[in-house]
Amino acid sequence: MKTHSSAHTFTSEKGTVVTIGTFDGVHIGHKKIIARLTESAQVNQWESVVLTFFPHPRMLLQKDADIKLINTITERGDLLEKLGLDHLVVHPFTIDFSRMHAEDFVEEILVNALHAKKVIIGYDHRFGRNRTANIDDLKQFGAQFGFEVEEISKQELEDVAVSSTKIRTALHEGDIDKANAYLGYPIMLEGNVVYGKSLGKKLGYPTANLHIQEDYKLIPGQGVYVVRSYIEGAIVYGMMNIGTNPTVGGVAQTIETYFFDFDSDLYGKRLSIEILCKIRSEQNFESVELLIEAMKEDEIFSRTYIQSLKV
Ligand SMILES: Cc1cc2nc3c(=O)[nH]c(=O)nc-3n(C[C@H](O)[C@H](O)[C@H](O)COP(=O)(O)O)c2cc1C
Ligand SMILES: Nc1ncnc2c1ncn2[C@@H]1O[C@H](COP(=O)(O)OP(=O)(O)O)[C@@H](O)[C@H]1O
């Protein structure tokens, strides 16, 4: 898969079949749409293209700085790559771009830049300045500029929209089982290991504190989770706490992981950590001794769970 940072720098050898969307989560519903795209490309000897925008239109237009996404833009690219796409175009969503008239968008972006022979799009897709154009307009533009339009049905689209919303809600609630089932893969958090309060080692459980750069990344609700990571080529399991560490007087939210059967310096390293299941909610224990007891139980639970994955 080739990633292009703008439609204007896109190049392809052949005509293309294009779909447009955010595809946040790249979940089981999205995969069906992408499968239609890659199949159509194969049958027609075209190249498959996903056109996506960044930042998310809602971040720019509604000043909705607080919108949270299931995937960072890097994760989205990595997940789409696994689906056998030929091209991912991450076009910058700017104020100027948002003001483009529908016909200019079709001619400049879809036809001239992306060489679209076919566009696969939701029945309710709206585009162009103030989202004035709809799928019927797109079909007319198709006749004018020589591309086909394939409509994704209401039912199929609702399945996709519902699962994106359901995944976000499930993640907020810490319902990892549900979120992972809709995603079709374990939700992941990626970031750099930073210094914490240096209490972990004293408690007998050193924890790698993860700093996630992308402020729009949705962090699952507070709680203690069984996790998995890949550190220097090896699978490492662990237990993660997402919370404010109230027992030791913490205030700010941290994401910290104790890795099992592991003992090396992780400061400054980049980790991608998959969340596999929830153990319990974070609690404000009356003493540090009680917190340590709880962590010992978390470890027993986690090791049993991990063992069950291996049989
Ligand atoms: C598996 C696990 C469970 C935890 N559960 C709680 C909890 O229920 N309540 C709490 O206040 N802190 C909890 N913590 C956070 C500890 O207080 C934290 O690891 C400790 O403050 C070390 O912080 P440091 O890495 O900044 O040194 C948990 C940590 C881990 C790894
Ligand atoms: N098994 C382990 N799991 C997590 N971190 C470990 C482990 N063994 C060693 N470390 C190292 O210890 C650091 C955490 O120690 P800790 O006392 O909790 O300090 P901090 O408050 O800076 O996180 C990690 O960032 C990592 O470099």
UniProtKB/TrEMBL annotation:
What InterPro entries would the database entry show? FAD_synthase, Riboflavin_kinase, Riboflavin_kinase_bac, Riboflavin_kinase_bac/euk, Riboflavin_kinase_dom_sf, Rossmann-like_a/b/a_fold
Q: What's the short name of a Pfam family annotated to this entry? A: Flavokinase
Select a single GO molecular function from the record's annotations and give it: ATP binding
Is the Flavoprotein keyword given for this protein? yes
- Quote the pathway field: Cofactor biosynthesis; FMN biosynthesis; FMN from riboflavin (ATP route): step 1/1; Cofactor biosynthesis; FAD biosynthesis; FAD from FMN: step 1/1
Keyword annotations for this protein, in alphabetical order, are: ATP-binding, FAD, Flavoprotein, FMN, Kinase, Multifunctional enzyme, Nucleotide-binding, Nucleotidyltransferase, Transferase
Which part of the chain is the Riboflavin kinase domain? Answer: 182-307
Catalytic activity entry:
FMN + ATP + H(+) = FAD + diphosphate; riboflavin + ATP = FMN + ADP + H(+)
Q: Which SUPFAM superfamilies match?
A: Nucleotidylyl transferase, Riboflavin kinase-like
Instruction: Establish whether keyword Flavoprotein is in the entry.
Output: yes
Q: What is its EC number?
A: 2.7.1.26, 2.7.7.2
The protein's role, per its UniProt record: Catalyzes the phosphorylation of riboflavin to FMN followed by the adenylation of FMN to FAD.
| Protein name, entry field | Riboflavin biosynthesis protein
Q: Which organism is it from?
A: Dokdonia pacifica
